[in-house]
Specification:
It is a single chain. By secondary structure, the chain is α/β, with parallel strands linked by helices. The chain is globular and about 55 Å long. The model is unreliable at 41-56 and 441-453 (pLDDT under 50). The two termini are 36 Å apart. Helix 9 runs antiparallel to helix 16 and helix 15 (414-421) runs antiparallel to helix 16 (427-436). The chain has helices at 4-9, 13-21, 24-37, 45-49, 54-60, 113-122, 132-147, 242-251, 260-270, 287-297, 313-321, 324-338, 354-364, 389-395, 414-421, 427-436, 440-452, and strands spanning 71-72, 78-82, 85-87, 97-106, 149-150, 154-161, 168-172, 180-186, 197-202, 213-218, 224-228, 275-283, 302-306, 343-349, 369-375, 404-407. It holds the Pfam family APP1_cat. InterPro entries: APP1_cat, Mg2+_PAP. It comes from Lithohypha guttulata. This is Phosphatidate phosphatase APP1 catalytic domain-containing protein.
Length: 453
């Protein structure tokens, strides 16, 4: 489990400089002052500890499965999420295993009007004509997972349904001091094949527990895989700007970056449905928001988020902008442990530490990463230094130049992708060319149609 203090100490000089240029500390302080003045400064872990019994649960949460007061999550008190995951197995075709992650919240404050107003004021909503009511409703919806208290020392009985086989029972948890449980266990039977999908859901035979479900996608040891960042790689987040983060996270419909859904669709088809991992520095509070966004526009996969359910908006800023290199490299280490024999393409952007992260992993695991693609973000502020060629050359020192590419639009990658994938999938070049060299009006209409969905 991470902490905000650890993130600060893991901050890279590039991250520190970016936060200073964009005045993150000033925005954090102003927002905290507005929340305090409105009487809702307790949108934080402090609020969680004010709930009945929460202090005891929080302290005992450190004991894990040795906690004598562990109990099942309650539908009356808790909301539970089970995250989609990827199952793996060794080359001897043994049992399928997966890391199953669940998050348990405790229902907290019902009225968050003042917190919504503070965010609206910070992003300048009050100065914009029209749509204020609609936008405030959206802010309220997105903000609720940050207002719920975390629920340590809770368990979640589940059923694992493996195709036509008899379901078997497991118990997730107990949740830790951040309300998170993470366990690796068997999730399928050896006779199941690559590409099958299993269901993990709360046990319907046990009354009084919250309803939740997630899916497990089975991936054999060999084949392709894609590790993709989310923020400003496939989703517009404006990570270098604190006001931009607030606006795109809470006040606007999620928007994909230009042409990336089509690029990922083509990759998914030509790589014969690879294992997809969406690796983000966002906190777990945003899981459902990001899950829906990816389901709408991109191939399904496992979303990996930071191991903290931050209950402060300052925590949201920190988790997106500090300590990314240490965090992301550790999660890539885990993916390598699961699927060491697959070939991977890594896709990220220039707003944070993706070039440095992917370069380090490439050198750490020779032959595992076949290509690295970095989107040069030109539609966000404070990007001048981060987009300099010298930055990329330094980051990829020791990585062969035929491995990595920096791009603005994915059509710039078509020749490189074709080279990496090989002659067996030469049609990828035709598909990329047909889309990116087609009628601009048709492409623009396609993008508009996707936004409306």
């Amino acid at each position: 489990m991470e902490s905000l203090i650890r993130q600060v100490f893991a901050e890279d000089p590039l991250e520190s400089e970016g936060r200073e240029d964009a005045e993150f500390l000033k925005t954090e302080a102003e927002l905290f002052a507005k929340l305090t003045k409105a009487g809702v400064s307790s949108v934080s872990t402090t609020a969680a500890m004010k709930l009945p019994g929460a202090a005891v649960d929080g302290l005992l949460g450190w004991l894990g499965d040795k906690n004598p007061f562990v109990k099942n999550a309650s539908a009356a008190e808790n909301e539970a999420w089970i995250f989609d995951n990827t199952a793996f197995r060794s080359s001897d075709r043994s049992a399928w295993r997966a890391e199953v992650v669940a998050c348990i919240f405790q229902y907290g404050r019902g009225d968050i009007t003042a917190a919504v107003a503070a965010i609206a004021d910070t992003i300048g909503l009050d100065g914009e004509p029209g749509h204020q009511a609609e936008t405030r409703a959206l802010i309220s919806e997105r903000l609720r997972p940050f207002v719920y208290a975390i629920a340590p020392a809770r368990t979640l009985p589940v059923l694992i349904r493996s195709g036509g086989h008899n379901p078997h029972k497991r118990k997730l948890g107990p949740s830790n001091t951040s309300g998170i449980s993470s366990q690796v266990f068997e999730v399928g039977v050896p006779s199941q094949q690559n590409g099958e999908v299993n269901l993990i859901e709360t046990d319907p035979s046990i009354s009084g527990i919250p309803q939740a479900k997630g899916v497990t996608r089975l991936c054999e040891p060999e084949g392709w895989g894609v590790i993709s960042d989310i923020d400003d790689t496939i989703k517009i987040t404006q990570t270098p700007d604190p006001t931009g983060i607030l606006r795109t996270t809470f006040a606007e419909p999620a928007q994909f970056t230009s042409h990336m859904p089509d690029f990922y669709k083509i990759l998914n088809e030509q790589l014969q449905r690879p294992a997809w991992f969406y690796l983000s520095a966002s906190p777990y509070n945003l899981y459902q928001f990001l899950h829906k966004f990816i389901a709408d526009y991109f191939p399904p996969g496992t979303i990996i988020l930071r191991d903290g359910s931050w209950m402060t908006l300052g925590g949201l800023f920190s988790t997106l902008t500090q300590g990314q290199k240490e965090y992301k490299t550790s999660r890539i280490d885990k993916i390598h442990d699961w699927l060491p024999h697959r070939k991977f393409i890594c896709i990220g952007d220039s707003t944070q530490m993706d070039p440095e992260v992917y370069a380090e992993s490439f050198k750490k695991y020779p032959g595992w990463i076949s290509a690295i693609y970095i989107r040069k973000v030109t539609d966000a502020p404070h990007m001048e230094k981060k987009n300099k060629p010298e930055r990329f050359e330094k980051a990829f020192e020791g990585v062969p130049p035929n491995v990595w590419r920096v791009f603005v639009l994915p059509d710039e990658l078509k020749d490189h992708v074709t080279h990496i994938v090989g002659d067996a999938h030469m049609s990828i070049l035709d598909q990329l060319s047909a889309y990116f060299c087609g009628d601009d009006r048709e492409k623009q209409q396609l993008d508009k149609d996707k936004v409306k969905r």
